[in-house]
Amino acid sequence: MKFRIDKIADAIKEEISRYAGELEIAQIGRVLDVGDGIARIYGLSGAMAGEMIVFANDTIGQVFNLEENFIGAVILGDDVGIKEGDNVRGTGKVLSVPVGEELIGRVVDPLGRPIDDGGAIDATDHRPVEIPAPGIADREPVSEPLTTGIKAIDSMAPIGRGQRELIIGDRKTGKTTIAVDTIINQKERGIVCVYVAIGQKESTIAAVVDALREHGAMDHTIVVAAGSGSAAPLQYIAPYAGCAMAEYFMYAQGRDTLCVYDDLSKQAEAYRQISLLLRRPPGREVFPGDVFYLHSRLLERSAKRATRWVIVPRSAPDEAFTSVTGKEYVGVPGLHEAERDLDDLSETHELRKVPASGGSMTALPIVETLEGEVTSYIPANVISMTDGQVYLEPDLFFAGVRPAVNVAVSVSPTGSKTQTPAMKKVAGALRLDLAAYRQVESFAQLGTELEPDTQRQLDRGRALIELLKQDLRVSIDTTDQVISLFAGTRGFLDDLALEQIGPFERGLLDEIRGRHPEIYEALEESGELTDELTEEITGAIVEFKKVFLAEW
Amino acid sequence: MNLRNDEIVSAIRDEISGYAGEIEIKVRTAIPLWHEMRTAIQAVVTGWLGRKPILIEEVEPGLIGGIVIRVGDIEIDGSVLTRLDKLCARATARGRREAYHGQDYIEDQPSA
Fold first, then answer.
1. Using omega within 30 degrees of 0 as the cis cutoff, is the peptide bond preceding A132 cis?
2. Residues spanned by the domain of B38
3. Long-range Cβ contacts of A63-68 (<8 Å, 24+ apart)
């Protein structure tokens, strides 16, 4: 490996010639004491809350408490190299992280420094870790779905782009799996995903990265990792840093993004640790008084941004975005108004979306409960901030129902508006059938002979529960889900043995795609279960069932 | 919060000199200050802060050249050492950035 000396020399000469003799002016403070990830600093009288500071060994810190005689700061890194008496420099800036396309596919720490083997990151830009959430005028109602590929969720608790959906449950119930499978399902949909790992074992984080890589998901994902071995301040800012990285794509490019915070319970614990060490008064469950605000300001940054439109002449060059009517139309009401204004001009003019407008950030926060207690402090807080929850239960998990989603209590009112009419129909029927099943479930244990209606409800319920089971890392396309749930809610599975249902579903979906592609395409395009389509699908299922039973 | 005795003393000294319209400043240079230099510094600081500066001088050959002035919390670093450090950091960052974007500083590497 030979160095091109001449080129390097030229570069250095150029740098020297550009070398201006500016003075470095900085505010300096001195470390009074340091330990446990926090430091008390004397001086730095101009420091502001949240300001980024730099210790003598180049470790970064953040100003937390402004007390009468000193500053309480958190150390975003190892406190080992910092000594009492060391100088600390103020930067006059708020804490920021590198953002940009270069981060996609990389695993970074909460300060944006790479921790994978991919080399240095030369970021396009930097964004502050904390910014105010978008205001009312900048938002639009959620209208597009964010498909997880998981039947139980896409039908019963569907997620929309720009909403917050909480994944909540005890440990080891499959919360991370749902989040990771959702990320994998965003392949080639143009959605940038950020997975923030907070307080987890490094081995667990490595396993998630491997899974993402194996399924080609790292091509659209950034992983921000603050494992349990990281300093508490890093675990505290990790979700905000991940959010900032996703916000770059939302604000600068008007793209849809997804942020997974795994998990916020650990972030709250890290925040509690820092607050106690800096002597902030403890409240309920020893959490600081602003632990609600810790999470609310994070989750409020997820939004569906209003798209802006302009009316331009068709002949105008691609970069022209000045509206001929002099008005920029904002959001959904704006779009309607624009369409009205366009009416007379539609021959010669067209609607154009203002670049970098619109976009969304969907949040999937994860909270761990103890013994299913959702009314405890942190879970209750976060439930009140999200637009719906997916409840995972250990009983279901160990009974073999995986994903262990309790579809009766899992909700997503916002996301339901984004479902196609076809999915709404089958999901509605599914909901009713499962509700009926739950009412008669207890009778099954009596062992007595039951009325035909009751027996049918039991069979239907059992079949549907079996149908909703899904393997890890297997994602089912929405149209396939509609067909599958159609078969289930119309009773075609009622008389099958439970172990036949999985293979039947797979076979049916293959059959329709292979032998009746026009059904699939019609359903995919219209999203509606017309009477005609209903008949066609019914016919195909009946036919397939005959063959299936014969060959079983 | 443990303040050392010398810190308490210097804090009291600051207060007193403040009342007297004076201000203590710490000056670090690579070679000892000479008379004209001292006068120049005092003139500049008086103009800047409006108080008569009392210089506390420290010689630090490691600075190579230039001057570092510390007034209370604010430090003005005009030392050659810091400027060279900054130059080095800038050049290294540039090299890293250019190599990342395919600039070939190494013979056998194919350009990205």
1. no
2. 5-100
3. A64/A38, A64/A274, A64/A278, A65/A278, A65/A279, A65/A280
- Fold of the CATH domain A421-551: Lysin (1.20.150)
Task: State whether A120 and B98 contact (CB < 8 Å).
Answer: no
Q: Is A208 helix (H, G, I), strand (E, B) or coil?
A: helix
> Is the CB of B102 inside 8 Å of chain A's CB atoms?
no
In degrees, rounded to 5, the angle at the alpha carbon of residue A469 between the alpha carbons of residues A411 and A524 is 75
Q: In this structure, which topology does domain A28-96 adopt according to CATH?
A: Elongation Factor Tu (Ef-tu); domain 3 (2.40.30)
Distance separating alpha carbons of residues A110 and A238, to the nearest angstrom: 5
pTM given for the model: 0.90
Count residue pairs from A and B with Cβ separation < 8 A: 79
ipTM value of the model?
Answer: 0.74
Is the preceding peptide bond at A154 cis, omega within 30 degrees of 0?
A: no
Please check whether residue A123 is in contact with residue A103, taking contact to mean a CB–CB distance below 8 angstroms. Answer: yes
Is B69 within a domain?
yes
Q: Which of B4, B44, B70, B73 to mutate to test the interface with A (most CBs of A within 10 A)?
A: B73
Q: What is the mean pLDDT of each run of 10 residues along chain A (552 residues)?
A: 80 80 83 94 91 94 93 94 94 94 96 92 91 94 95 96 97 96 94 97 96 96 97 97 97 96 97 96 96 98 94 82 84 88 82 90 97 95 96 96 94 92 95 92 79 90 95 94 95 93 94 92 91 94 94 88
